Structures are given as structure tokens and as C-alpha cells.
Amino acid sequence: MSQWACVSAANLSCQASIINTQKLRNTPRCDAFSFKGSEFMAQSCRFLSPQAIYGRPRNGACPLKVVCVDYPRPDLDNTANFLEAAYFSSTFRASPRPAKPLKVVIAGAGLAGLATAKYLADAGHKPILLEARDVLGGKVAAWKDKDGDWYETGLHIFFGAYPNIQNLFGELGIDDRLQWKEHSMIFAMPSKPGEFSRFDFPEVLPAPLNGIWAILKNNEMLTWPEKIKFAIGLLPAILGGQAYVEAQDGLSVKDWMRKQGIPDRVTTEVFIAMSKALNFINPDELSMQCILIALNRFLQEKHGSKMAFLDGSPPERLCAPIVDHIQSLGGEVRINSRIQRIELNKDGTVKSFVLNNGSMIEADAYVFATPVDILKLLLPDNWKEIPYFKKLEKLVGVPVINVHIWFDRKLKNTYDHLLFSRSPLLSVYADMSVTCKEYYNPNQSMLELVFAPAEEWISCSDSEIIDATLKELAKLFPDEIAADQSKAKILKYHVVKTPRSVYKTVPGCEPCRPLQRSPLEGFYLAGDYTKQKYLASMEGAVLSGKLCAQAIVQDYELLVARGQTRVAEASVR
């Protein structure tokens, strides 16, 4: 699942800063932003019920004891995909040490940029990672408010079917920061307010039998005739493998289901929720390729659909260790460093990145690891007609809204898990006061919810979004939440709007996704929109970074020769 939001190319200051991860971990922050252009992110914070006593430990108070019960890390290390990803990682560490390390400047410190820099550093090169804002993570960025509570760009889930992410955690020595949940998928029942339907994957069965068993045992969402028709409809995908999956890019989920003779009710009951969770859009828009890739991973890998939450905020618990690793190997990470333009040589290749403060950074290679919408804004005019870049016009970020609501009491009708709301306005949600150790609170719940599809709501006021969210929550918590707050009271909320998040995976997008190596010598791309098999996801972002780093390492001789030519030409002048 995606569960992403946006990377911003904007920053509050033109002054670049070398990042200090210790300061990052200790500095609270509460801001409200509004930036121009497709790269902006709007964030807001509202504090209600000022007389209410907020049950979080304050400075000097004893920390709360965490009593969340998590499940052991699944046995992922011997799966084929994990081993393939592990070998890929090892190639960087095992590559010959370069006589002259490449200086590589990377724009964007989301997961794609961080991964690119990490693996280049592993290969002995010197990355300089530039982040426009004063926070790391891009689509996994998060901030602290004045109470010390975190609010995030999205609700992030780490699946067992994310082999490159799982390897990254292991390489950094932070496997213990993932809180694994029971192997289930839990859906709300709109026809029965307050009730849920579960798909439980038995531990004793291998894949795909555990998934088949989970589907067969659930009789609340699909009838037996619907299950049989769905299974028959899926047979071509199961037998045809990856080639068949990729060939379905031209069909929407809804069209594919009808083509396979699968009842519309299957789409309504299951795939509206899945589509919104995967790409924040409905099944009449989403490419079926996206659904089939997810189903393939979930059905072919025993622990593929098993979920974990990070035990705290992504900037501190995931991004900071990557930065530490990069810096320990001689790389740099700079925040407040926004790219203003790409300066070109006479032959059309990159001469330098020009920052907002007027400074120029020259390097042996250049990487753009921002979202595709930001790249398109900064493309030099004489690049725009090159087919490699022109195809990007069809790739457009999808809007999404992430909502955080702190209540005055502990809600009972929830689970220590991700929940599919099956609401027309909401995608997935979780009570983060239960699922995440750092956010744990025994007295009050904090619901984090993905509001999607968001296209019609992105320009609405925060209060309108909260009012609409409460109406939906009243159906999920009929005994505990009312739209008029006559039951549970809101203590405060944060709304994070992302007008351009992950690329919208509509039919016909696959041929438009670029390879990481551009046709221009020395210029590369990274990001979940680039060509890799995990589409728009955290796993896709990390894999794209590895592929980008691999391309640069493979081009070492060419890049060194190019640099020598540039120096020789400069000396002649």
C-alpha cells in the first residue's frame, strides 16, 4: 500500500544547513505552511477544549509504560524476494573501491533520495543530499506540535512483501523498530455500523493456501458464488505471472473485473477499499495492474500481507539512521536547500544545480529524487521535447489528506491494527495511541485517518474536513462518537493536505514511467514513479534509489572521463 503523501520542493529559508540528526531528534516543531505551486503542502493545527487535561507526560514527568503487545518479526530472511534484495544491497558494499569517488548531488531527501545516497555511499562514493525543507522524509515526513505530539504526512504501513525496505532496516540495525501486528486484514462493515469483518491468515499454512483460507473463511463480505467467480477470474493472473500483470495496465479495476465476469459486488465490497488504500482513488480510475501486483505479492509470499507499524515518527526512527549511515561514510545531507533551477552546458547536459540562495553545486553526477510534479516544474525548456521527459506529462500526483484527531477518552471499538474504513470519504485508519509505542496513551485515543479520494476536498477548510470526518467516524464508532461531539470530544486535530502525492496510477501510465538513467549523460532519476516493480509505495521508492545508485556505479568510467574532459576544457579557457 502506498500510504504516502508529498515531498515539497519548497522551504521556509533560503539558507542551507548541514543536518544534525541529534538536533533533529530533540527539536519540537509546530508549523502551518502554504506554498505556491504543485509542490506545496498545507498543514494546520487546531487546539480545542483548552480546559481539558491532556493525558500525555510532560517534561519532568515519568514516561508512560508501553503495554502494546506486538507479534514477532516474521521469517522473511529466507524468502526469494528478500534474498534477491539482500544480494542487490551487497553488490554496493562489494564493489571495487573507486580510485576517485564520484561526487553525486541528489535533490530530495525522501526515501528515494535517502536510498540513493545510502547505496552510493556503500559503494565508496560521496553523495550530497539536498532537501528543500527543514524536515527529512518527503512523503514520510512528520512534525511535532507544541505538546510534543507528532503528526505525519501519511499513515505508513510496512509489509512483509517489502523486501528492500526490510533489508534496509536490517542493514541499519533497526529491525526492532517495526511493530508487527497479527496477520489479518480488517474491514469495517458499513451495513452494520460498529462491526468489522476479518480475513485471518493462518500461520500453519504456506502461501498461497493461507490467503485462500483467509478468503474462504470470511463469509460476511462475499458469498460463495462470488468467491468462486472471483477465483476463476484471477486464474489468468496467477498462471500468467508478471507478463500478464503488466499487460493489464490498460484496464481499470472496474473494467477488468467485468471483463473477467466477476460480480460488481466484489468490487464494491473489497476493491473500493483496496484501491483507495493503494493509490487514493476509486476502482473506476485505478489501473488493474496496481491491484494485481499487490495481490501477487500477498498471495505468493506467506508473510507478504503481514503489516508492521514504525514504533515512532519516520524522520527520527527511520530517516535519521539513514543520515547517520551516509555521514559516517563521508556523505553529506543538507536541509533548507531548495533547487531553483538546473543550469546546463552547451551540449544540454547538467552543469550545476543552482540553489535558492544563488549558490551553485557542481558534481560528477546529478540525481532528481523529488516527486514527478516537482521535476516537471524544474525541467529546462530544451529538455521538455525529449521523449524521455515528454512522457512524464501523463504522470500526475494524486491529492490526499491525512487527518489526526485526539479525543478526550480511550475509544473501545478499535484494534491494534490498520483498519479499512470502507467509507466513501475515508480510506484506512488506525488508533495510533495503541498501534505505535511512541504515540501510546492509555487514557486518550489518537486516530490517524487517510481522507481519500481527496480531489473534491483539497481546497476545503480544515473545519469542513473535520466535520465530514466526524460524520464518517460516527458510523464506525456509533456508541462512542457523534458528529455533534455529544459523545467523545475532540481535544485537538491536525490536517495535512497534499495536493500532489504519489503519481496517479491510471490505465496507460506504465509506458510513461522513466528508467533511472536518463538519455543525458550524468543525469539520473529516482522516485516511486520511475520504472520498478513496486509502483507507488515506500518499497518502490527505496528500490528506485537502489536502481539509481546502481546505474551511477555502472557508469563510473564514463562519469570520470566526462569530469576529466570538463576540467581540461576549463583549463584551456
TrEMBL record:
Domain Amine oxidase, chain residue ranges per copy: 111-552
Keywords, alphabetical: Carotenoid biosynthesis, Chloroplast, Chromoplast, Membrane, Oxidoreductase, Plastid
Annotated compartments: Plastid, Chloroplast; Plastid, Chromoplast; Membrane
Catalysed reactions, as listed in the record: 2 a plastoquinone + 15-cis-phytoene = 9,9',15-tri-cis-zeta-carotene + 2 a plastoquinol
Lipid bilayer topology: Peripheral membrane protein
GO cellular component, one term: chloroplast thylakoid
NCBIfam families per the UniProt record, alphabetical: phytoene_desat
Record protein name field: Phytoene dehydrogenase
Species this protein is from: Prunus dulcis
